[in-house]
Amino acid sequence: MRTLIHRRVEAARNGTNPMVISRVTSGWLVLGDVQFLRGYSLLLPDPVIPALNALDQQGRIQFLHDMAVLGDALLEVTEACRINYQILGNLEPALHAHVFPRYLTEPEPHRTSLPQSYEQAYRQSIVFDEERDRPLMQAIANAIQHRL
């Protein structure tokens, strides 16, 4: 089954995915389609696999390490106070990790809830913009390179 994750990884390989931040050992770091939480990013495995459980021990360690390195980079370059990590795969049944910076400036009750607690219309209101987001993506990429 070809998922959105498969298509995004293929575009990253071909150099046609404008959201690519960096290539890492386990896959691709990409900025999210929506930016209601500035810096929201994903780790897409390459090759695409169905779930974390499909990886061997070393593959799991590498994927989770790369996910944490992305979180470290986001803490460095944004004003986030913490990072939320999610591995779901329910809508797109392929492994991918959502990495959400969280900010003290977020309104209650959202600040202490899941990112999905924001209204759908708000979550979709700030979409990826290559021109606006390129400096942030470069800063994240630089912070990641210092950690590899």
TrEMBL record:
PROSITE patterns: HIT_2. Gene3D superfamilies: HIT-like. Residues 7-109 form the HIT domain. GO terms for molecular function: catalytic activity. InterPro entries: HIT-like, HIT-like_sf. This is HIT domain-containing protein.
